[in-house]
Amino acid sequence: MKTSPTRISKTKHTLTSVYTARHDITAILIFAMVLPLGSTSCSDKDEPAPPVKGESFIAFTNPETREAVTTQSIREFEVWAFADPYNKKIMSGIDVRRTGLNSWSYSPVTQWPDGEVDFYAVSPVGMNVDINLPYSHSLQFPAGDGTTDLLVSVKMNARQSDGHIRLNFCHTLARVTTEISTPLTDTEVRVKRISVVDVGTDGRYNIPLSTTVKDDPSDEVTAAWEIWNMSGSRFNLFFDESSHLTVSSEPYWPEGKAEFFLPVRFNPLGTDGGYVNGSAIEVAYQLYDKATGTQLWPKGTTHPFMLAKDLPGWGAVYFSLLDKTPDGRWYAGREYHYKISINGEATPPGARSIDENFVTVTTSTY
C-alpha cells in the first residue's frame, strides 16, 4: 500500500484547478542541408557549427528545459519536404535521429534544390501522417494511454542561402497533472484510482500551411483539431491494481500514467441510464474509521451513482471538468494541474455535493 505523509484538520471536499498557460513553442531545432551532400557531421557544443560545404547535418539549439519533450530529450522526428517548382516531394517521412549531444543523422541525404522548400516535421515518429499533397496535410492521432506528447513543426519557403533553418515545434496536446490530499484526521482515505472520463480518444490534426513560430496562439493550434470521440473514454492518472494509496494531508502527485490529452471542449456532468456521464475527474476511494478499522463509506445505503461500477466495493466522486476548468476546455500547449481534496462522502451530481469547491488559476511555462 502506498502512503502519503501527515495530516491536517477537517472540512468539505475541494478541487483546485491550477491552469498553466503555454502558447510558446519550446522544441527548437536547426536543420541544414548544403550542396554537395555527404556524411553527417556536427559540433558537440550547444550552438551548431555553420554550414560547411560538402557536409549535411541536423542540429538542435537548446532553449529552456521543461518537463515534457525538450530539445534535450527528443530522440527522433520525421520530416517531409516539398520543393518548387511544382511542389515536388523531396523528403517523405525521413526518420531523423539524434547521434550525439548536438548531432543528427538521416538517410538518404537530400540535396538542396534551386528553389524554395517547405518542411513539415512530426515527433514522435510512427504517427499516422497524411502528407502527400502540398496544400493539405493532416495526422490522425489516437490518444492511446495518454503518455505521448505530440509535436509538429512547419517551415515554409526555406532556401539554401538561409543557412541554418529553424524548425519550431509546437505542442498540439494539453498536459494534465494532479495531486490529492485530505484534511481528515480521524478517517483513513484509501484511493484506488484517479481518472479523467469522457474526454477525447481520437482526432485529426490539420497541419498548418504556415511557419510555426514561438508564441503561436494556443487557440489557433487547438482549432486545428477535429475530435472524433468523447463518450465512454477513461484515462488513468493513477491506478493501483493490487492495493491502494492511503491519502494524508501531504499532497501525493501521481506519475507515470496518462498526461497528454486532446484539446477538447468538455461535456456537462449528468446522469443517464443509471450511470454518471460527462467530462469529469473521477476518484475511486473508501473511507475507514482509524480507531476501529470499520469501513465508513461506501456502505449499503450509498447511492448507486456513487459506486465505481467496475471496482466492486469502491465508491466514486466526480468533479466536473466543464465547471472546474477555465473556458470549459483544454487548450493545446497548456498545462492543467488539478488539486483534489477528499473530505468525506460523495453525493450524486445535482445534489449538495462535495464538489462544492473553488478553482484557482495560475500561469507559468510547461
Task: Describe the protein.
The chain is mainly beta and 366 residues long. Helix content is 3%, strand content 41%. It contains two helices and 25 strands. An eight-stranded antiparallel sheet has the order 4-3-12-11-8-5-6-7, with no helix packed on it. A hairpin with a 6-residue loop joins β11 and β12. The longest helix has 6 residues. The chain is elongated. The C terminus is likely disordered.
Throw out a few tags for this protein:
366 residues, mainly beta, 8-stranded antiparallel sheet, 7-stranded mixed sheet, 2 helices, 25 strands, elongated, disordered C terminus
Any chance you could write out the topology, listing elements then pairs?
Elements: E1 2-3, E2 14-20, E3 27-32, E4 57-60, E5 76-83, E6 88-100, E7 103-105, E8 117-123, E9 128-133, E10 136-142, E11 151-158, E12 165-171, E13 174-181, E14 187-197, E15 202-206, H1 218-223, E16 225-229, E17 234-239, E18 245-247, E19 260-261, E20 270-272, E21 275-277, E22 280-289, E23 295-297, E24 315-320, H2 321-324, E25 335-341
Parallel strand pairs: 1-18, 13-25
Antiparallel strand pairs: 2-25, 3-4, 3-12, 5-6, 5-8, 6-7, 8-11, 9-10, 10-15, 11-12, 13-19, 14-17, 14-18, 14-22, 15-16, 20-21, 22-23, 22-24
